[in-house]
Specification:
It holds the Pfam family Nitroreductase. The chain is about 35% helix and about 15% strand. The protein has 8 helices and 4 strands, in the order ααβααβαβαβαα. Helix 2 packs antiparallel against helix 5.
């Protein structure tokens, strides 16, 4: 059974955007090809950043490696229940201070843009990813030997969707639930009155 969760939008969107969602049901037998992995990382590499600082950093741990197991063990318990089936766990970090010691106030924003680009390329590659904020940042930073200026932000569970994957009941229900977003009008900030009007 294929689960399609195409977004209901006010105007048509590109299918790579409209069809992207974040499943937890992953194929535990799938292995990323090197070309797929290179493509998603290249998409992130070419995203925009303030003053072209490119603050994003990635650590890719493939399933079957000790680093994968260590990153999985640093996830919140609810995420461990299903993320073990990912083809790779990708730690995404931001370099928040430059080599000259100057702070990079847009580093986290820019790294988020890089992940957005990565997610669209993953969709194009026939892959899915689920972004995980529930993990022990200090533990992951120590595991990877990250310096203080490189802060882990998120872990990406990357792989291939498996609609029939075994999940706890509550998570299985979320896999088939409709996608929801606030209406567009609710996202628009009110503008001050134009005195010239």
């Amino acid at each position: 059974m294929t689960v399609r969760k195409t977004a209901v939008t006010a105007v048509p969107l590109h299918p790579l955007l409209a069809e992207r969602w974040s499943p937890r049901g992953l194929d535990a037998t799938h292995e990323l090809t090197q070309d797929q992995l290179t493509a998603v990382l290249e998409a992130a590499r070419w995203s925009p950043s303030a003053s072209n600082t490119q603050p994003w950093r990635f650590a890719v741990a493939r399933r079957g490696t000790r680093t994968f197991d260590d990153v999985r063990d640093a996830l919140a318990r609810g995420n461990q229940l299903w993320a073990h089936a990912a083809s790779a766990l990708v730690v995404v970090a931001a370099e928040t201070t430059g080599p000259d010691g100057a702070p990079r106030p847009w580093a986290v924003y820019d790294t988020g843009q890089a992940v957005a680009h990565l997610s669209v390329q993953a969709q194009h590659e026939g892959l899915v990813l689920h972004q995980l904020g529930g993990f022990d940042r200090d533990r992951v930073a120590a595991l990877l030997g990250l310096p203080d200026q490189v802060q882990p932000l998120v872990v990406l569970a990357l792989g291939r969707h498996a609609a029939g994957a075994e999940l706890p009941e509550a998570l299985a229900a979320r896999e088939v639930a409709p996608r929801e977003r606030l209406p567009l009008d609710a996202l628009l900030l009110p503008l001050p009155e134009d005195p010239a009007a």
